[in-house]
Amino acid sequence: MLNPADEAFGARLPQGVLRPVTEAYLEEPRGRLHGKAGLIAAPRDLDETAAIVRACAEARVPVVPRGGGTGLVGGQVMWDGPAPLILSLERMTAIRNLRPTEDSLVAEAGATLQSVHDAAAKAGRMFPLSLASQGSAQVGGILGTNAGGVNVLRYGNARAQCLGIEAVLPDGSILRDLKRLRKDNTGYDLRDLLIGAEGTLGIITAASLRMVAQPAGVGVAMLVVDSPAAALDLLALAGERMAGCISAFELISGQGLGFVAEHFPDLRQPWSEPPRWSVLIEIGLPSGLNPSDALEGLFAAAADKDLVSDGVIAGSLAQSQALWDLRERIPDGNRLVGAVASHDISLPLDELARFITDADAMLAGMADVRINCFGHLGDGNLHYNLFPAKGKSRDAYDDQRGRLSDAVYDLVMARGGSFSAEHGIGRLKVAELERWGDPGRLAAMRAIKSALDPFGIMNPGAVLA
Amino acid sequence: MLNPADEAFGARLPQGVLRPVTEAYLEEPRGRLHGKAGLIAAPRDLDETAAIVRACAEARVPVVPRGGGTGLVGGQVMWDGPAPLILSLERMTAIRNLRPTEDSLVAEAGATLQSVHDAAAKAGRMFPLSLASQGSAQVGGILGTNAGGVNVLRYGNARAQCLGIEAVLPDGSILRDLKRLRKDNTGYDLRDLLIGAEGTLGIITAASLRMVAQPAGVGVAMLVVDSPAAALDLLALAGERMAGCISAFELISGQGLGFVAEHFPDLRQPWSEPPRWSVLIEIGLPSGLNPSDALEGLFAAAADKDLVSDGVIAGSLAQSQALWDLRERIPDGNRLVGAVASHDISLPLDELARFITDADAMLAGMADVRINCFGHLGDGNLHYNLFPAKGKSRDAYDDQRGRLSDAVYDLVMARGGSFSAEHGIGRLKVAELERWGDPGRLAAMRAIKSALDPFGIMNPGAVLA
């Protein structure tokens, strides 16, 4: 049994760590969930973090870790059970030991992704993980959820950027593993176990991260394709020509561009009528090869195979940015329209095109919805989101939402996909994990959770019920 | 307490899985360790593997998993305690569901790395993990030990090639997670936990692996550098010019080339007198860029900065292969000379050059040894190996070996390095892990081991004492 984080418990914490309980700590970006909190604690360093967790372990008080609060599955808001202590990493924001010649830096958990980008750029390097929410998202949350974003195709997700971690385990003990090594085979991979565990196995307090060199030449293009199948063929063709130098390959639907046109009319679009399907491709090349030439060569080869019908190749940094702006406004457009249901899914690449065709057809027979399917095609990761028909409101779909999502997930899982590609489980997808998770895997997860957190104080209700 | 795998126990196993106990199952490549075995079991499929492990769990019989047997730290040979059952994956060798358009395949644990390479090549793709021992090393062992090799710099180690696993857990239950997904954030990362656990947390029976496109143009060069520091500067320069297209960057010492010249006199070397330091660089480029031109450009830029003094750029596939042969014969040369002590270490890149200088100086004051320092410089991974002085035998160093290795490891660890970069812990480095492992990390490892393998049947004595 867990106990609430009450005033008497607060008196046992290190001096000066408590902060007033304000709304900002209880919210999540979509505004649909509301957490509770007995206390908010913001430690200044590792030792204070450990002291807080140790006190929670002794008193059986639940701990909800909080980074930038940008997660989309409710991992950061606990609404059930005794009022938790929210452990905010907001005061641990240092970026230290940035080593450009080694391409490594150490960031504390509360540092924003943007601050890591800025520090790397200042040293002439690049941190290769980009998210729309990077101004608020923090390193601890990014690792805790194994965040993805637009450059995973080339550089991998958050997991792949991390060389080492420092963490406080559920009993308040400290795991010190801030290595700067590219190779280290000395025992179990606890780093990857904590990454993506969404704060249920411990709290990451700092991470050693890798940087990369900026590619010598960067090119961006938006190409019109006939279908997702053609987009995948284009990706394969690009893969063969580019030797892994594709930094992003994003699928964009006409519906998504339509929402953007409706809500951001000042944003110039390449076509007066949004093409039904297009892709945004970014390449980063070795020196000696002109990116525009490479993209023109790709376009010509793709046109020969009837894979592309039109396209724009950015001729300047401003034009590249304008194309990216279009892509990045799609989630904003979605928010303003208001989704009936959103699905962060992934599929094996060979199943992806058929999934889109089949899911579209299935939903057409089930409900009057508009579908905006977009996302990180190179990773097989789609955001398959449903919106009210024109003139209808989101609320009108309240009694259909569950049925529609179930049907989408059923189809995804039948094709060997994932019901959460990059957002994680949080509290919103615990039932889905129960339903579709492999029983052997779930049993092993429970055994590990019990072994490391026997009292269940770490982010209770997240990931595992 | 564990029980031996005796005849009575053998009668409880599935029909036809037992094989005669022969020497081949009890050996390791360096011929210095000798394991024992009560029974050898070679299951034909997942269900038989699970049945064997379940029987072992019930009877508390130790299980030693065996792949190609090429490991260098004794993970595959158990010489202490009750005679184990050796579980050989040699009959599970299928490669199935190879999907070139998706760049994925599923390999059973007993498939050799070479057979995965061949299958990928036949489909016009590439499996990006290369080891000297790939003709014998098997997928299960490669994942169990998170093997490295020469292409880690670009493609990552074994871990990074794996999209999903199927495994038998220590209680005989099955973990089914043969996903073909690039992104899947649905719970704890058990895949990465089993990878590198050296068979102590379960037995990987099959893996879903990624393939990659062959780069459009491949170039190889061997460049003479003044020092490891210059080699690192060259690596940084190449990184900036090549946008991540460096497939290998290997440091080679004059001592290593000398051993090769001595034992493989037919192998032509580029220089009559081996240069004190050189690097082998391989690049794999996008189409439109000539690899020889790119390497010549790199050489010119490096010469401008006084980083290189000489070099050969391969003009043909045969010449590329000849340069690689030189590199790959270095371990064979070492074996024929007979090392006093070998150290598979890694260092933060910023510490690496100074480490070599300091370690060389330290050893010069300690013993009369020849040092062959070579390895995967791009990963900070050195094979820092000590050999008898000319005319002396390996045995003459028996009473110095421990002291010399301790001194090397002490220096490595003081500089933030690792005492096992790619070979793992096995049974030979258990004491080192005890000594240098972070206490918080070790405690968490033990908790996980107890949770998943409460009777300690899985590869006892490996990784954790």
Automatic annotation (TrEMBL), chains A, B:
It comes from Paracoccus pacificus. InterPro entries: FAD-bd_oxidored_4_C (IPR004113), FAD-bd_PCMH (IPR016166), FAD-bd_PCMH-like_sf (IPR036318), FAD-bd_PCMH_sub1 (IPR016167), FAD-bd_PCMH_sub2 (IPR016169), FAD-linked_Oxase-like_C (IPR016164), FAD-oxidored/transferase_4 (IPR051264), Oxid_FAD_bind_N (IPR006094). Belongs to the FAD-binding oxidoreductase/transferase type 4 family. Residues 33-214 form the FAD-binding PCMH-type domain. Keywords: FAD, Flavoprotein. This is FAD-binding oxidoreductase. It comes from the Bacteria. The keyword Cell inner membrane does not apply.
